[in-house]
Design a protein that fits this description.
Helix content is 13%, strand content 54%. It has eight helices and 23 strands. It has a 23-stranded antiparallel β-sheet that branches. It starts with a helix and ends with a strand. The N terminus is likely disordered.
Length: 449
């Protein structure tokens, strides 16, 4: 059970990796404007290449971290999490991010544009986890069989997994459209369908971890522990996804995206510069029925100890052991868990460099605090993507600097509305790359503008 608590992100990630990450880096800034472009910035629905655009499916999956390399995953397999905590000399971060853009459509009529999107998301994260604490709970042997290590953390360490779905309604409007310039705006209202939420957060931990042979104990410890999970979606014995997988519930939240877009045209009326600014994922959703949300205040005085190596059973058993020790005071919250969406601001610019060669730059910055227990995470990133466009055929190569994995480089191909690629396949061939991902999708446009 100790190991399962910390590897929840990878348990969920094994399901999520076959889905998709958002944004669709590289392809989202393609000169062929699609519903993917509209999810990046709702104002892009005014720039669809055809009168009607239909997205059949778009999928993408990504796993990234700040410790282990792409090669380590293949070398160590199921022991890769153990290796990460053994190697770490600072907080451990891992992100598994996934989403599916399902059947969606957009239509342009005069100066107005309208659309509808269906999306499903799965996220699993390890956020700033102290490697010494991770080794203790995972039952990884320290360098010495008899050791004492002090921890003084000023932030909240988390392991979190979340699944939800969205139904979005997009409206766009051209404000200015001349021979040389075009400016438009857009908005997306989103109805949220919460699915699965689990969180393990340890805030402001100050403690000493003692190891005496096989015994691992916590002493001189203060801090607070948040344990939140859905009883219906997580199997109590393994803390994994239940037999029915993610179960998306009823409407229980709302979100909003806002965006603006500017285009500069050449003498032939073709776009030579396309730039945009968007604020996305404003709002929240509540995980309600069957959601357990307990916070434990910890106080283990000097001369007394709590045995970490004796934690056993399912989550309910673990919570009983905490209370029976006398070192933890429990506070329960009812009415569900209200989570903040992964709000962010993003900006981008796309331009024709020379001939068939184009390039784009994309940047996003999150608003929320990833260490907060009820905050869904988002990564800060900067992406540069050169692309070669030969009619309906396009080759693109996104190069990104991400908050967790650092520098990644990828390659993708598009023909018409079909695309396939990876944001990290080029750097994935090197031993030091810390991200693995892929994306693929199919859409179709028809009707002349």
């Amino acid at each position: 059970m100790r190991k399962q608590l910390l590897t929840i992100a990878l348990l969920v990630g094994s399901t999520a990796v076959v889905l998709a990450q958002t944004p669709f880096i590289g392809i989202q800034n393609s000169s062929r404007k699609s519903m993917i472009s509209a999810t990046m910035n709702p104002a892009e629905i005014n720039n669809l290449n055809k009168k009607v655009e239909v997205n059949f499916f778009s999928i993408n999956g990504s796993v990234s971290n700040n410790i282990i390399s792409f090669g380590d995953i293949f070398e160590f397999g199921g022991d890769v999490v153990d290796v990460a905590f053994e190697r770490a000399n600072g907080p451990v971060n891992m992100r598994t991010e996934a989403s599916v853009l399902g059947p969606s459509f957009g239509i342009k009529t005069g100066k107005w544009s309208f659309g509808m999107t269906t999306q499903a998301f799965a996220k699993a994260d390890i956020v700033d986890l102290d490697p010494t604490l991770g080794q203790s709970i995972l039952n990884i042997q320290f360098d010495s069989r008899n050791s004492s290590t002090a921890i003084a953390s000023e932030y909240n360490q988390r392991v979190n997994a979340t699944g939800w779905a969205e139904l979005g309604f997009i409206v766009g409007r051209e404000i200015i459209d001349t021979e040389k310039h075009k400016f438009s705006v857009g908005a997306t209202g989103k109805i949220m369908f919460p699915g699965t939420y689990a969180n393990f957060g340890l805030n402001r931990l100050r403690a000493v971890i003692d190891q005496n042979d096989t015994e691992i104990s916590l002493t001189r410890a203060t801090g607070s522990l948040n344990i939140s999970y859905s009883e219906s979606d997580f199997d109590g014995s393994t803390f994994g996804i239940g037999t029915n997988g993610f179960n998306f519930g009823s409407i229980n939240g709302f979100g909003l995206d806002l965006g603006g877009n500017y285009q500069m045209k050449d003498a032939n009326g073709r776009t030579k510069l396309n730039a945009g600014l968007a604020v996305r994922n404003l709002g929240s959703m509540t995980f309600g029925a069957g959601q357990v949300n307990n916070t434990y205040t910890m106080n283990i005085p000097e001369g007394q100890a709590f045995r970490l190596d004796q934690l056993e059973g399912n989550l309910s058993d673990i919570e009983d052991q905490l209370l029976e020790s006398g070192f933890f005071t429990k506070t329960s919250e009812t009415g569900g868990v209200k989570t903040s969406l992964p709000s962010m601001i993003s900006a981008y610019a796309e331009m024709r460099v020379i001939g068939k060669l184009q390039a784009s730059a994309y940047i996003q910055q999150r608003f929320g605090d990833d260490n907060a227990n009820e905050q869904l995470t988002a990564q800060n990133m900067i992406v540069i993507t050169p692309r070669l466009v030969l009619g309906n055929f396009e080759i693109y190569s996104p190069w990104a600097s991400t908050e967790i994995a650092g520098i990644t480089g990828g390659l993708g191909l598009r023909y018409g509305g079909f695309f396939i690629g990876s944001n990290s396949i080029l750097t994935g061939f090197t031993a030091d790359s810390k991200q693995a991902d892929f994306h693929m999708g199919l859409s179709w446009g028809f009707g002349r503008l």
